[in-house]
Amino acid sequence: MTYPIEKIRADFPILNEKIRNKPLVYLDNAASCQKPQAVIDSIVKLYSHDYANVHRGVHTLSVRSTDLFEAAREKVKTFMNAASEKEIIFVRGATDAINLIAQTYGKANIHAGDEIIITAMEHHSNIVPWQMLCEEKGAILKVAPMTSQGELLMPEFEALLNSKTKLVSVVHMSNALGTINPVEKIIELAHARNIPVLLDGAQAIPHTPVDMQKLDCDFYVFSGHKLYAPTGVGVLYGKQSLLEAMPPYQGGGDMIRTVTFEKSTYAGLPLKFEAGTPSIAEVIGLGAAIDYLNTIGMDKIAAYEAELLAYATQAALKIDGLKIIGEAKEKGAILSFTLGKIHPHDIGTMLDSLGIAIRAGHHCAMPVMDFYKVPATARASFAMYNTKAEIDVLILGIKNLIEMFG
């Protein structure tokens, strides 16, 4: 069966937009994906017909909202193949999830002299929370190095593992380079030493199937807005035994069992980590996004995006002066590049005049930019609704830009 690209594109109303009188070519998907009509409709329907606060109400609208909210949790559980819906915690995004783990599991289990291992290609959200925890606890943050191609040096990673290592926190797919890390091997090596592993899946989960029971990682985090869902919602997956042992992150409504002025007791999973009124519409939108992705199939999406990346890479390599940043053998649909002395911000601005949306900057990965000795990169990132024709427009725009700058 051929990939239904025209049908998919028709499902995303924003792709019909004109930017500066040019058809929109949206290649900023690593920052945030666009939303299908099904997701937009789910939110409109909620607010038009079903909305009320969840969990505590007995009236009809509250029951409807609660049913939709909890159905979304079940959809996430199935999508990730988690063992239980109790392992699915709704948060604001991947950053929120990592901070939650740092402030709960981290504070309870990391002590002076202990070590946490990350990699040289991490997003700031998988660096700064651990730095803050290490400063507070007197622990040490270790960084596993990478090659100039952007691949993790596995012997060096393994050499960092020791009796002082209390957590490994690794990006599944780099947002700045596209590198897909060998997470199965990372988990195997860490677990052989009884070290828990957190995977930052914000970039990986829109592009490839994930299976928590097969991966056997201890924590996995992602943001909804990169998975064709609304902003303001994300997921923390954690093994039930670990989540049950962790203290609450925030106090308030919904996360309690009983409250007196003398003492409070806490709700069970998953509510223990979901204080206050949640992002109801956004969670329901996430459920709708997962339904939509399931109609296409993550395997088909992964294969199609691999074709797009190969096509874009081959075309980019033919452009004199263009340098690709991140050339790992295992790589997701991200093309980061520089163009000699042309600043990435100028690249982004000039391409925008042609209706092409890319990202230019350090991509919240300043240590990666330092490693490659560049201030920033231009990044085109592809999604299931992009086409080879759009890549042709990008390549032509880059060539025109080079001519303009001489």
Give a quick precis of the structure.
The chain has 406 residues and is of the alpha/beta class. 40% of the residues lie in helices and 17% in strands.
General description of the model:
By secondary structure, the chain is of the alpha/beta class. It has two domains: 127 residues, Aspartate Aminotransferase, domain 1 (Alpha-Beta Complex); 255 residues, Aspartate Aminotransferase, domain 2 (3-Layer(aba) Sandwich). Helices cover 40% and strands 17% of the residues. The strands form five sheets. A seven-stranded mixed β-sheet has the order 4-10-9-8-7-5-6, with helices on both faces. A hairpin with a 4-residue loop joins strand 11 and strand 12.
Key attributes of the depicted protein:
seven-stranded mixed β-sheet, alpha/beta, Aspartate Aminotransferase, domain 1, single chain, 2 domains, 406 residues
SSE layout:
Elements lengths: L4 H6 L7 E2 L2 E2 L1 E2 L10 H14 L9 H21 L7 E4 L2 H16 L5 E5 L8 H10 L2 E5 L9 H7 L4 E7 L11 H9 L5 E4 L11 H4 L3 E5 L10 E5 L1 H6 L10 E4 L4 E3 L13 H17 L1 H20 L4 E3 L9 E6 L4 H9 L3 E2 L1 E3 L4 H7 L4 E5 L6 H18 L1
Parallel strand pairs: 3-15, 5-6, 5-7, 7-8, 8-9
Antiparallel strand pairs: 1-2, 4-10, 9-10, 11-12, 13-14, 14-17, 16-17
Radius of gyration (CA) equals 22 Å
Output the CATH homologous superfamily of the largest domain.
Type I PLP-dependent aspartate aminotransferase-like (Major domain)
CATH topology of the largest domain: Aspartate Aminotransferase, domain 2
Report the major sheet: 7 strands, mixed
Q: How much helix is in the residues?
A: 40-55%
Principal-axes shape call: globular
Indicate the CATH architecture of the largest domain. Answer: 3-Layer(aba) Sandwich
Q: How many domains?
A: 2
CATH class of the largest domain: Alpha Beta
Kindly report how far apart the N and C termini lie. Answer: 46 Å
Biggest sheet strand order reads 4-10-9-8-7-5-6
What's the total helix number?
14
The low-confidence runs, each spanning 5 or more residues with pLDDT under 50, are none
If you average the pLDDT, what whole number results? Answer: 98
Helix vs. strand class: alpha/beta
